[in-house]
Design goal:
Blueprint lengths: L2 H19 L7 H9 L4 H8 L5 H37 L18 H15 L3 E2 L5 E2 L1 H4 L19 E5 L5 E4 L5 H9 L4 E10 L11 E11 L4 H16 L5 E6 L4 E10 L18 E10 L1 H6 L8 E8 H9 L12 H4 L4
Parallel strand pairs: 1-5
Antiparallel strand pairs: 2-4, 3-4, 5-6, 6-10, 7-8, 8-9, 9-10
Helix pairs in contact: 1-3, 1-4, 2-4, 5-10
Bound molecules: 3,4-dihydroxyphenylalanine.
3,4-dihydroxyphenylalanine (DAH) binds next to strand 9 and strand 10.
């Protein structure tokens, strides 16, 4: 036998040992020991053959053979040790000291979190949750809210229409605001009424850092006898303080929305720069952040819902939920809320 053939044989013995020791169910280690390392075992016989090989080549081959022997002994010892630990399961080469397989846990999306926080705040103030459809008719999204057909105020909300018609033959649309739920709530129940509704809305708008074709709003409506602007201011102020801390201030600026009179835009003191530092990128140095629209429900809206404006009055407000999420979590670009990038989501749950 020459050195090359001997090496091939050694490698065949090692392969055969590896296959045998990896067998499932596990083989008996004593049997393997006898077959490969015993006095008449495969490796022992091979080592004996070394005597036929010229002396100068024998030495490195002997070293190879011994290395194979040591390795086999170690693996057999491992198998015996494992067998001693706990029967057949462990015998199958199971290493109990390996770390476990990671099991990533999901979490709520920052928008869902924000909606939950807004919801809690309104439940505390005695509001109940109302609902309304996303695919809406022109009447509930516009007309009953005092946007007559062709009224220029409709231009404030560029709309997606769908290929379906309502009973009056008008195209249905994706609601442009949650204010439709004001009408739906008043149609469904008699006053007094105190409801809120968080949900998705749609606008035909180009996407940028602060606009999207779909976003979320929260709407509030309170109708009772003798509700005044003071009730609106107290409610909004209390709600803002609940979310952002008692240090924040709110202020009202006159504004126009067809379904309220008077109408207002509500600002909150900037929660980032606090004192209106002139380089604050969030409030742009004004010290104030525009947070929502609000006002006293217009008599035409009450009439459309068969509420007598001489008897009942109320307030309404509507706010973008993304704005709240961005301020609560310090997110600077609204698109981050929709990209589902785990690097962002893991930071803001
Ligand atoms: N629906 C308005 C919008 O999307 C926001 C709004 C303004 C809602 C005033 C209200 C309100 O309830 O009273 O622009």
């Amino acid at each position: 036998m020459n050195a090359t053939v001997w090496k091939e044989k050694l490698s065949a013995v090692r392969d055969s040992f590896s296959v045998s020791i990896a067998q499932k169910p596990a083989v008996n280690p004593e049997e393997l020991e006898l077959r490969f390392l015993g006095r008449k075992g495969e490796l022992a016989l091979l080592l004996r053959d070394l005597k036929d090989i010229p002396l100068e080549e024998r030495k490195p081959l002997g070293a190879l053979g011994n290395a194979a022997k040591t390795e086999m002994e170690a693996r057999l010892a491992g198998l015996k040790g494992a067998a001693g630990l706990s029967g057949p399961v462990v015998k199958a080469d199971l290493d109990l000291t390996l770390p476990g397989v990671p099991f990533p846990k999901g979490s709520l999306h920052p928008l869902t979190h924000t909606m939950n926080r807004l919801t809690e705040a309104f439940l505390k103030l005695g509001f109940t949750m109302a609902d309304g459809p996303l695919v809406e008719d022109d009447y509930h999204n516009f007309e009953a809210l005092n946007f007559p057909p062709y009224h220029p105020a409709r231009d404030m909300q560029d709309t997606f229409y769908v290929d379906l018609k309502d009973a009056a033959g008008k195209e249905l649309l994706l609601r442009t605001h949650t204010s439709n739920t004001q009408i739906r709530a008043m149609e469904n129940q008699d006053p007094p009424i105190r409801v809120f509704h968080p949900g998705r809305v749609f606008r035909n708008e180009a996407v940028d850092a602060s606009h999207s074709f779909t976003f979320h709003q929260i709407e509030g409506l309170y109708i009772d006898a003798g509700v005044s602007m003071a009730d609106l201011k107290w409610t909004v102020d209390t709600f803002m303080k609940d979310l952002f801390g008692t240090a924040v201030k709110t202020r009202f600026n006159p504004s126009y929305f067809p379904f309220v009179e008077p109408g207002a835009e509500v600002d909150m003191s900037c929660v980032f720069c606090k004192a209106g530092g002139d380089r604050c990128p969030v409030c742009k140095g004004t010290g104030w952040l525009e947070m929502m629209g609000a006002g006293m429900v217009h008599p035409n809206v009450l009439k459309a819902c068969k509420y007598d404006p001489a008897k009942w009055s109320g307030f309404a407000f509507g706010a973008g939920i993304e704005r709240f999420a961005m301020l609560l979590y310090g997110i600077s670009d609204m698109r981050m809320l929709y990209e589902n990038d785990l690097r962002v989501l893991k930071q803001v749950h």
